[in-house]
Known about the structure:
Largest sheet: 9 strands, mixed
Distance between the termini: 41 Å
Amino acid sequence: MYESLKRVAAIHDLSGFGRCSLAVILPVLSVMGMQVVPVPTAVLSSHTGGLGEVVMHDLTDYLQPALAHYKRLALDFDCIYTGFLASSEQIDRCLEFFAAFPDALGVVDPVMGDHGRPYKTYTPDLCKRMGELVRAADVITPNVTEMAILLGEDYPAGPMSSSELKSKLVRLSELGPRMVVITGVSTLTRRLCNVGYDRDHNAFWLVASDYVPVAYPGTGDIFASVLTGAILGGDSLPIAIERASRFVERVIKTTFSYGTDTRYGVMLERVLPSLYGHDITGSFEAL
């Protein structure tokens, strides 16, 4: 019997050059067997990480009519997945998507900043209102900067202990989501990790990755997309974190080996075929 594909509404920006946002979300989820319906929040000529003056077109006015059209078509979605937002009003539009499809898995990548600072386009009001979106989510994937913003805390001054991480994971879950994954965590054992919490099972998980002395745009988008595809495909949270961590690690190492300009993003095209596999190394561990 024919089984329809999982359908994902991806509410993210579209950056033309630099391999991030919808430019990587679409191929990643498609390779994982998901039908992606892009719902662009903004169109940019490139990402904003050092490529000169970016041309940006805000698409706030597009979101509500797009939702109305999908409702007229009687479409159903298995997942509503949000990322970069161009205005505070877009929080309301995302909440309308969640309300229209209450049975869909709600994934929020609370894109707000990195390296201890919010992005230039993220006003205090937009950062504050991100909490409303987090409350409506089933899964959130903040980095350490976004974790601090959501919790109203200062950016961590150094590596975090297991007890600190557990506390932060639980407090983030208390905001609403039943699954929380914090990316890019530095631990007291000097490992770079992604850590997660599954509230339904009261379980904490950690996946460590090799450190590579480089940073590329779009890796957070790739991680959250693989995680989303894995959960939709039936993976448990630790297996989904492992699958996302290993793929991002592979794509970073591959790109680093070529010595390309970091502003150009990762060489996703060379590594995408590996997502067809379903290998699990068992490298996740209890936190």
